[in-house]
Design goal:
Elements lengths: L2 H27 L7 H36 L1 H53 L6 H30 L4 E8 L7 E7 L1 H13 L3 E2 L4 H8 L6 E3 L15 H4 L2 E10 L11 E11 L7 H13 L1 H23 L1
Antiparallel strand pairs: 1-2, 1-6, 2-3, 4-5, 5-6
Helix pairs in contact: 1-2, 2-3, 3-4, 3-9, 4-9
């Protein structure tokens, strides 16, 4: 049905509406609230004509649509379904993009507040006026809750980006007497905690080189992340957890670090690494620029918070020891 025919149908509908309204107004103005049979018949006839035109127009349009699909055959129907699916995916991507942006904003909002609190506490400690033991312990609890908030929100974000159910973990780098970096789980998202807590308790600490991702970032060719959507196909991948294949087959790891030696060639850069943000799932979808950049941006922003939290935690430990000694 062409534009001209559609125009005719539209004008016909408008004329019918105007006739009905005109007759009604005429009846009211003449004080005839119960119009005679002739006027009623004319009004109903006009309405019926307009309805008939509209129905015929709709049928012609539907017939044209199905005729086009029949001419194209199954391929045409599939094409229409594909177009509808793409429109739906576009709308979903738009909504997901907004939700990801909102999550990042929420994380940065909370991180700003926590850093400000820790900054005030570290200044007081350095000036010889440390907070009370109760205040220090309250700061610790508040920031532990922040990290739970962080991993839970990162899980939601990575679920949206990948379309898979992800698990998020914060790993801490700790020194040892032998000079070997040791890894420890600091925080897991609430959804994956129950299925992973056994592995965390059986290996509370383990050398960094027992995990390929940590080894390549800490002692490899200065990698800024480690990612794989199919760890089962990585012949050299190693993990300290013997049951890792039951839990995931894809991972993305970004370090919480800061460069120490300014503008130098990549092979000579030195970093202070405090920990790692780790994401994994069974199906993949992590080896993408948006996933990598978003997770790395959050990891970078955590470095100063980690430093100040460690400072406050050490002060709390000293205060508790002094209080106990008294």
């Amino acid at each position: 049905m062409n534009k001209r025919t559609e125009y005719i149908f539209g004008v016909s509908s408008l004329i019918g509406l105007l006739i009905s309204v005109g007759l009604t107004v005429l009846a009211l103005r003449s004080g005839n609230y119960a119009p005679d049979a002739g006027a009623m018949i004319i009004s109903l006839g006009a309405v019926n004509v307009v309805l008939a035109i509209v129905v015929v127009g709709a049928l012609l349009k539907a017939e044209e649509h199905w005729k086009r699909i029949c001419e194209l055959g199954p391929a045409g129907q599939l094409k229409d379904e594909r177009i509808r699916m793409l429109i739906g995916q576009s709308e979903l991507a738009r909504n997901s993009g907004f939700e990801v942006a909102r999550i990042i904003h929420n994380i940065q909002d909370q991180l700003r507040d926590r850093i400000n609190e820790l900054f005030q506490a570290t200044e007081d400690i350095d000036n010889g006026h440390p907070p009370t033991v109760e205040e220090l312990l309250d700061l610790q609890r508040t920031n532990e809750m922040f990290y739970l908030f962080l991993v839970d929100n990162l899980k939601i974000m990575m679920d949206l980006l990948t379309g898979r159910r992800c698990a998020v973990t914060i790993k801490i780098v700790e020194g040892s007497e032998g000079g070997v970096f040791m890894m420890r789980t600091f925080m897991r998202d609430a959804a994956s905690y129950r299925s992973r807590k056994t592995a965390d308790s059986s290996a509370a600490e383990y050398p960094y080189y027992d995990n390929t991702a940590f080894r390549e970032i800490l002692s490899g060719p200065r990698r800024s992340f480690y990612v794989s959507d199919n760890l089962g196909a990585e012949a050299t991948y190693a993990n300290s957890n013997p049951a890792w294949k039951r839990l995931y087959n894809a991972t993305l790891v970004c370090p919480i670090r800061m460069q120490l030696n300014g503008e130098v060639p990549a092979d000579r850069r030195e970093y202070s690494v405090l920990g790692f943000l780790c994401v994994d799932n069974r199906e993949g979808g992590l080896d993408r620029p948006d996933c990598i950049e978003l997770l790395a941006s959050v990891a970078d922003s955590l470095f100063n918070h980690f430093l100040m939290l460690d400072h406050v935690t050490a002060a709390a430990d000293r205060a508790i020891e002094e209080h106990t000694a008294c």
